[in-house]
Design brief:
The strands form 2 sheets. Strands 1, 4, 5, 6, 7, 8, 9, 10, 11 and 12 form a 10-stranded antiparallel β-sheet that branches. Helix 1 crosses helix 2, helix 1 crosses helix 5 and helix 3 runs antiparallel to helix 5. The two termini are 102 Å apart. The chain has 5 helices and 12 strands. The chain is an alpha+beta fold. It is rod-shaped and about 225 Å long. The longest helix is centred in the middle third of the chain and has 160 residues. It folds into 2 domains: 233 residues, Helix Hairpins (Orthogonal Bundle), CATH 1.10.287.2610; 140 residues, Glucose Permease (Domain IIA) (Distorted Sandwich).
Length: 474
């Protein structure tokens, strides 16, 4: 529950900051909180509902949904990670900016300290200058009073002073010296007064310069203090902004951890689904193998019984076939040889065996090299059974051919020729005269043949015709 409260707080925080520069009125914040609560509830109830109903779905559907939920969580986790990196960079940028501001503030502090020291020195110098000015003024005033008294004295006693000077002098040179002396005293007083006046003016000018310098230093100090206060406030604002980013980074880190936890749970859920499917497949495989083993046992038993029945049937068939073959082999014993030349009275070429495997006419070749138009009848047969001449005539061919195998050809006159092919052994030679019913060869499978039989053909004037027009098995 604590984790979901954090998730809800993170949702509120992110949604509020996602509003940008919009006014965050109480109504807006309330709506954001409500939206965040809905989002959080959907995350919780959606996950619970998904797990509640997943058992009614197929393995592929459950796995696909779990993989999709994991992929969505991964995407959200990556988004939060990107946001964390962005906010970390912003925090680092702000820290660098604050560091720069701190450097500027420290520079301003040094500058203000220097200005304070300069002001103290200037004020001390101004104080000394003021004392010098007062002393110069006093000296000027005293010199002025002394000079004024001497001038007043000379003015008041000028004539008497001249006579005293003349009478008291012992020589003209002394008189001139005394006159020059008085003149020099007067000039000295004037020069000294000018000097004192100039010194006073210089001190006053220096005082004014110091006062202007102190005023200028004060202005510089006020400017530096204002800049320091501005930078300090800016640094405080950026520090508050960093606090916001730190709070956002903390919430982002919690959200990131929540997504990582969700992904871990979803991975465990996927593994559970896969494990359940693996167990289901194993159980199905076990049942299938049991069923196959059961069917195999039943099939083996059925085959055993079938084989036993087949063996019995085969034995019976072989016995019957043996008896039939014996009868077929002995059937030629009952054929009477006679000199019959009428085509309408032809007899069956294989006494006792009327089985026909291929008829005259178009067909599918039974083996490679065989013709697709059958020019006779494939009859019988039992290997070694006796083949008889169907009509009296002259043996014109008794030889071997790659396709016909051992064969016999008998000319019956009037363009009528009969052929007996695939024999195992020939009992006549070319030029022999044979009667109807004479044994001329034994059944075999020579040449292009798929098994023991006799290929019987009838040709009239070189054209093969359907033998069934002349012979039939009675």
């Amino acid at each position: 529950m604590k984790r979901f409260r954090k998730l809800r707080m993170a949702s509120v925080f992110l949604l509020v900051f996602g509003l940008g520069a919009g006014e965050l009125t109480p109504a807006v914040v309330g709506n954001v909180r409500a939206d965040a609560a809905v989002i959080t509830n959907r995350l919780v109830t959606g996950r619970t509902a998904g797990r509640w109903f997943q058992f009614a779905k197929s393995y592929e559907e459950k796995l696909a949904e779990a993989e999709e939920r994991k992929a969505q969580l991964e995407r959200k986790k990556q988004e939060i990670a990107a946001q964390i990196r962005e906010n970390e960079q912003k925090k680092e940028d702000l820290l660098s900016y604050i560091e720069e501001l701190d450097m500027q503030i420290m520079t301003l502090n040094d500058e203000i300290d220097g200005l304070d020291a300069d002001i103290v020195l200037a004020e001390a110098e101004l104080s000394a200058t003021k004392e010098s000015l007062a002393l110069a003024q006093e000296t000027e005033a005293a010199q002025y009073e002394a000079m004024k008294r001497r001038v007043q004295y000379m003015y008041e006693n000028g004539e008497e002073g001249v006579w005293s000077l003349l009478l008291g002098a012992t020589s003209l040179s002394e008189i001139l010296n005394r006159v020059e002396y008085q003149k020099e005293i007067t000039e000295y007083d004037k020069e000294l007064l000018v000097k004192y006046t100039e010194a006073k003016h210089e001190v006053e000018r220096h005082k004014q310069l110091l006062e202007a310098e102190i005023e200028s230093l004060g202005v510089l100090k006020e400017t530096a203090e204002f800049n320091r206060a501005t930078l300090t406030q800016l640094a405080a604002d950026k520090s508050a902004e960093i606090e916001v980013y730190l709070a956002q980074l903390e919430l982002d880190a919690e959200t990131f951890a929540d997504y990582a936890e969700e992904i871990t749970r979803e991975e465990a859920n996927i593994e559970t689904i896969k494990e359940e499917e693996r167990k289901r497949i194993e159980e199905e495989e076990r049942r299938r193998k049991e069923e196959e083993a059961k069917k195999a046992a039943e099939e083996a038993e059925r085959k055993r019984k079938a084989e036993a029945a087949a063996e019995a049937a085969k034995a019976a068939a072989e016995k019957a076939e043996s008896e039939s073959d014996a009868k077929r082999l002995a059937a030629a014993d009952n054929v009477v040889e006679k000199d019959e030349k009428n085509p309408d009275k032809m007899i069956w070429p294989l006494p006792g065996d009327g089985r026909i495997y291929a008829y005259f006419g178009p067909r599918v070749a039974p083996t490679a090299g065989a013709s697709t138009y059958h020019r006779g009848l494939d009859i019988g047969g039992v290997y070694g059974a006796r083949i008889v001449a169907t009509l009296s005539g002259k043996v014109i061919e008794a030889t071997y051919n790659a396709s016909r195998g051992n064969y016999v050809a008998i000319d019956h006159g009037d363009g009528l020729v009969t052929y007996y092919m695939h024999c195992s052994k020939l009992l006549v030679s070319p030029g022999d005269q044979v009667l109807q019913g004479t044994v001329i060869a034994l059944v075999g499978s020579t040449g292009i043949s798929t098994g023991p039989h006799v290929h019987y053909s009838v040709a009239v004037n070189g054209n093969y015709v359907d033998p069934l027009k002349y012979v039939s098995y009675n």
